[in-house]
Design goal:
5 helices, single chain, IS402-like_dom, 143 residues, Transposase
């Protein structure tokens, strides 16, 4: 069983982080449309998303993107632009609302979970640690 997404017409060998055709159909209408003026868009937004997801999935630096993906300057430029304009948050909210609607749930979540686990120390231990550090500092200064 392959972990590679199913793509009808791949222009290159797919990566595990690539969008499948079904995922692309969900995200395609959520991306910003060209303005209609100025320099025409010459990049494939699907490949831009594939490159962004590649960086996110592998943790590599932008400059280390494989050569069969768009240039990292282009990819990072779109990533920053969409971050600045709030596109990522809009995509997240719309996909979440659509999924909740399909599951028959309220579109807006009404539950929040907070993890309050923390490392606790006793009062005594805290004081003793401070006094030990002070004693060590006195010993160092005496030398």
């Amino acid at each position: 069983m392959s972990s590679l997404p199913e793509i009808a017409n791949p222009q290159r060998k797919p990566y595990a982080s690539d969008l499948s055709d079904a995922e692309w159909e969900v995200l395609k209408p959520l991306l910003p449309a060209p303005k209609g003026f100025g320099h025409p868009v010459e990049v494939d937004f699907r490949e831009i998303l594939n490159a962004i997801f590649y960086v996110q999935r592998t943790g590599c630096q932008w400059e280390m993107l494989p050569h069969d993906l768009p240039p990292y300057t282009t990819v990072y430029g779109y990533f920053q632009k969409w971050q600045r304009k709030g596109i990522w948050q809009q995509i997240h909210d719309q996909v979440r609302q659509k999924l909740r609607r399909e599951l028959g749930r309220d579109e807006h979540s009404t539950v929040a979970i907070a993890d309050s686990q923390s490392v606790k120390t006793t009062e005594k231990k805290g004081r003793s640690t401070v006094s030990m550090v002070a004693k060590r500092l006195k010993g160092v200064s005496a030398i």
